[in-house]
Amino acid sequence: MKIITKTITTPTLTPVEIIDITAEIRTAAAESGLQAGTVTVISQHTTAFININEKENCLLEDMVTFLKRLVPRDGNYSHNISPLDGRDNAHSHLLGLFMNTSETIPFSKGELLLGRWQSVFFIELDGPRLSRSILLQFCGI
């Protein structure tokens, strides 16, 4: 068994953004040299998350609209009174209650074993940010 850890980074451009990171994970899987195992994809942030879903433009727009409606940015949140980093981002943390920080994906022969319609997304809830980090940890043979 071998373990390989890699970090990928991405800037975010909007307050709520869904970024397809599947290609970067596929490349890292192929470069790992491992033939079979799992990769755990983890956001290293408390206001950005990982999700597996379908990549279809109208659906992605619907997802952003849904998130904005579910927990409005302008709500009356105690966290916003004196935030640690000066950002009024309570809504981002609250949305995180419904999301995953990580996903684990099997791979074989260097290829991710995702379904036909599945893509891996990094979901920004507190953008824009100059750089966000996503940790990939491959465990396999």
Automatic annotation (TrEMBL):
The organism's place on the tree of life at top rank: Bacteria
Cited Pfam families: YjbQ
Stored InterPro entries: UPF0047_YjbQ-like (IPR001602), YjbQ-like_sf (IPR035917)
NCBIfam families in the record: TIGR00149_YjbQ
Similarity annotation: Belongs to the UPF0047 family.
Name this protein carries in UniProt: Secondary thiamine-phosphate synthase enzyme
